[in-house]
Specification:
This protein has 337 residues and is mainly alpha-helical. Helices cover 47% and strands 8% of the residues. It is built from 13 helices and 6 strands. Residues 15-27 have low confidence and may be disordered.
Length: 337
């Protein structure tokens, strides 16, 4: 009987010790997870594709996070149910962050990213200049021609103008400038396909590329969103009737670097692929980056009879159905004394 009691006492004490150790371990783990890390400065850590916690821990150590044993980090990760959910990217950890905070950031994908906004109507040349100013990103575009860049993006032989959708894009700080271009190009693929597939019937456009070109002209002709369908309607009717588009933005694009802010008589008389005063139909390529609204306007032109429009000086236009009406509008708004 005494021997049996001794065994009971032994199991009881063993159980109590196990409970005590568990509580102690839990409290130590909790304290570890919530203890601020005294980093010497902001720590930057890059998580590459395929990195798990075993690969990330040495990077955390190298950045200055020497506190705790590896098993504490791993157990804490299991406790937070984030093991295997580490996101690729660049992370910035500030002094005072806790191990739990570090793991939470890795699991949430709260990475440091470089932001770039492509504005509607930008040309590819302007886009390249803007990207050149993003010093945070690796420059893999320097010294490359436009054709080289399109080849780099897997679009060999494609003219770059108009092929990138105006929007805001983000890439990891350790990324490349071509990563932004690739995002914008893929976004334009999607937007153009959607507009083309949902277009009105009977449009004088044979391919999505022609719609992209028309959208780019619409984008450059007006800054007023409500006017885009009307501008589109004018150009569509002129194409249907075999009339020249006679749009200044295409002439300006054709002039290129020589454009000084003025279109002269000789510019309108010079035959170039982009001089829509001398050639019929659309120019061979887009002339700018059209936004979604311009794409939709090209796909859904406003009905009506207007074949002309003239700028009023306030960003808007007056639309006319006859040349006589157009001449009067030009006299009113363009030939003021």
């Amino acid at each position: 009987m005494a021997k049996k009691n001794r065994w009971r006492k032994y199991f009881f004490l063993t159980g109590m010790l196990a409970i005590a150790l568990s509580v102690f371990g839990y409290l130590r783990l909790r304290d570890f997870g919530q203890t601020p890390l005294p980093l010497p400065a902001t720590a930057m850590v890059t998580v590459a594709k395929g990195d798990g916690l075993n690969r990330v821990l040495p990077k955390l150590r190298a950045s200055g996070m020497s506190q705790g044993w590896d098993w504490q980090w791993k157990v804490l990760a299991l406790q937070m149910d984030m093991a295997g959910r580490i996101h690729v990217g660049d992370y910035e950890f500030k002094n005072g962050i806790t191990p739990a905070g570090v793991l939470a950031m890795l699991a949430s994908g709260d990475t440091v990213r470089v932001k770039y906004t492509l504005v509607e109507g930008r040309s590819f040349r302007q886009m390249r200049a803007e990207l050149a100013a993003l010093s945070e990103l690796d420059d893999d575009l320097a010294g490359k021609s436009d054709a080289d860049i399109m080849t780099l993006l897997g679009r060999k032989g494609v003219h770059p103008e108009g092929r990138f959708l105006p929007d805001t894009y983000f890439v990891p700080k350790s990324g490349k400038r071509s990563d932004l271009l690739r995002q914008a190009a893929e976004a334009m693929d999607v937007a153009l396909a959607a507009s083309w597939n949902g277009r009105d019937s009977g449009l004088p456009l044979k391919t999505p590329d022609e719609m992209l070109t028309l959208a780019s002209i619409i984008e450059k002709e007006t800054g007023k969103a409500e006017e885009r369908p009307q501008i589109s309607g004018v150009f569509v009717r002129r194409l249907q009737k075999g009339m020249r588009l006679e749009t200044d933005p295409t002439v300006i694009y054709g002039i290129g670097d020589a454009y000084d802010g003025n279109i002269r008589k000789k510019d309108l008389q010079t035959v170039t692929p982009y001089n829509t005063y001398r050639m019929h139909g659309l120019p061979p390529t887009p002339i700018a980056m059209p936004g979604r609204a311009a794409l939709e306007a090209a796909a859904h032109p406003a009905p009506g009879e207007s074949l002309f429009f003239v700028a009023t000086g306030d960003g808007g236009h007056v639309f006319s159905a006859t040349y006589e009406q157009h001449r009067k509008a030009v006299k009113t708004y363009q030939l003021k004394p």
